[in-house]
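Project standup — Tuesday

K.O.: blocked on the structure for the chain from last sprint. Re-posting the sequence here as requested.
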Amino acid sequence: MKKIIVVAIIGILICAVFHQTLISSIRDNFISKPSPYYQQRLEYFKKLSIEYYGVPDYGAELDLINSAVHLTKLNTAASDLIIPGFEAIQRLKQKQTLTFAEINSTRK
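H.V.: unblocked you, prediction finished:
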């Protein structure tokens, strides 16, 4: 009987340690760091922003507009992308800034 209890306790401890390790690895991999794909995608849109608008500030907005387009190394030509005019991209950035300010003001 004692052997069964000892084996059960050891099994529970092993499961608890494994569970904690699994949770911490998931947290480290998915929550704290952006994925390399997202970083590459954002860098690509910053380069497009420089090319079309002269500044890298509109990379996030271009990414938002083209969120449905999956980029690969073979698909980096801008043929499938939507590149709005300068005035439209400025309005989008302004709306995002206003939305961010409204969200932060309601949290206080």
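K.O.: great, moving the ticket to review. Residues 24 and 30 are 10 Å apart (CA to CA). The mean pLDDT is 76.
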